Amino acid sequence: MPSPITAPILGFLSRLSFPRLFLVTAALFFADLLIPDFIPLADELLLGMGMLLLASWKKRKDPLPPPAQR
After folding, report:
1. At the top level of its lineage, which domain of life is listed (predicted)?
2. For position 60, what pLDDT does the model report?
3. 9-15 long-range CB contacts below 8 Å, 24 or more apart?
4. Is 26 among the domain residues?
């Protein structure tokens, strides 16, 4: 069951593009690493953000050429 505190935050973060989500995750990770438990629920947010990062990380396919016109 999602937490009523972290669910809205993760909902907002899920709408970010991959580079921005990565930067936010990295910043939160280093802030939590330098000052443990400075931000409440940072560990839970980092787990959710890691899941979102893995879900949004996909290989870019080469665009298909346009179909031939007759």
Report:
1. Bacteria
2. 57
3. 9/45, 10/45, 10/48, 10/49, 10/52, 13/48, 13/49, 13/52, 14/52
4. yes
Q: Which amino acid is at 14?
A: S
Distance separating alpha carbons of residues 10 and 65, to the nearest angstrom: 37
pLDDT in tens, 13-39: 888 888 888 888 899 888 888 887 777
Structural domain harbouring 17: 12-50
Q: What pTM did the predictor assign?
A: 0.66
Structure tokens at 38: 């400075």
Q: Is residue 56 domain-resident?
A: no
What Å distances lie between residue 12 and 7, 8, 34, 38, 52, CA to CA?
9, 6, 25, 21, 11
How many domains, in total, are found in the chain? 1
